[in-house]
């Protein structure tokens, strides 16, 4: 399952900077992941200081 960013996102940009396929963009209140591009590598989750990115089924 693609990753999704939950509401604990603090908009620091760490996830976007570390995404190897550039599928993360800044939204109005949090960063967003394009599920059609996400390769489920977990790079975003491993760099996020607040554990906001999670697999969609989690």
Provide the fold topology:
Blueprint: E1 3-5, H1 14-18, E2 24-26, E3 31-33, H2 43-47, E4 53-55
Antiparallel strand pairs: 1-4, 2-3
Protein model, in words:
- This protein has 58 residues and is an alpha+beta fold.
- The protein has helices spanning 14-18, 43-47, and strands spanning 3-5, 24-26, 31-33, 53-55.
- The chain has one domain (3-55): Alpha-Beta Plaits (2-Layer Sandwich), CATH 3.30.70.20.
- The chain has two helices and four strands.
- The longest helix has 5 residues, at 14-18.
- The relative contact order is 0.39.
Report the major sheet: 2 strands, antiparallel
Portion in beta strands: 15-25%
Number of domains: 1
Q: Which structural class fits the helix and strand makeup? A: alpha+beta
Helix content: 10-25%
- List the uncertain runs: none
Euclidean distance between termini CA atoms: 9 Å
Task: Spell out the helices and strands N to C.
Answer: EHEEHE
CATH-scheme architecture: 2-Layer Sandwich
Average predicted confidence as pLDDT: 96
CATH class bucket: Alpha Beta
Strand order of the largest sheet: 1-4
**CATH topology title:** Alpha-Beta Plaits
Number of helices: 2
The radius of gyration is 10 Å
How many strands?
A: 4
The protein's oligomeric status is: single chain
Describe this structure in a few short sentences.
The protein has 58 residues and is of the alpha+beta class. It contains two helices and four strands, in the order βαββαβ.
Tag the structure with descriptive keywords:
58 residues; alpha+beta; Alpha-Beta Plaits; two-stranded antiparallel ribbon; 2 helices; globular
